[in-house]
What we know:
The chain is mainly α. The protein has three helices and no strands. It has helices at residues 6-22, 28-43, 48-67. Helix 1 (6-22) runs antiparallel to helix 2 (28-43). 0% of the residues are buried.
Amino acid sequence: xxxxxxxxxxxxxxxxxxxxxxxxxxxxxxxxxxxxxxxxxxxxxxxxxxxxxxxxxxxxxxxxxxxxxxxxx
Length: 73
């Protein structure tokens, strides 16, 4: 899906915006996360597992970076 296609502009974008504004404040990031996964998986579903694994690795690394921030001098 390309940003300038009719499908994106008149279907995906309005649905994403509706989900974002309907979601309660603590679920807004989750709504955007799920919509992002759908958007990036639209082109090639076979890369979805790679995308999820990389997201998980980045999440764990960011938690570890925050945990050990400033502890080594």
